[in-house]
Amino acid sequence: MESTGRLYLAPKQLPSNRSLAQMSRLGVPAHKAMRMSRAERRQHVRDSRGYSDMEKQRAKRARDKVSQRLAALMHARDTTHPI
Predict the structure, then answer these.
(1) Among residues 28, 29, 40, 78, which is most buried (max CB within 10 A)?
(2) How many C-beta atoms surround the C-beta of residue 56 within 10 A?
(3) DSSP characters for the chain?
(4) How does pLDDT run across 31-65, given as a tens digit for each residue?
């Protein structure tokens, strides 16, 4: 490459659609995600690794279901008469 006095900038690799979709799930608008470097996007994903509200609700429902079943079993055990 001949020297024209201009700094050569490699064309920026744009994030994949999959990566953009992941960022939007994390609540980052696409125009911001497009400007982030790969390292920044990865860090963002790492930071948000906690449970989402949906997952928390799902876990809570599962726990409630289990405790309801257990309560029903305990009640059945207490109310059945020994032969």
Answers:
(1) 28
(2) 11
(3) ----SSPP-PPPPPPPHHHHHHHHHTT--HHHHHHS-HHHHHHHHHHT-S--HHHHHHHHHHHHHHHHHHHHHHHHHHHSPP-
(4) 888 888 888 888 888 777 766 777 778 888 999 99
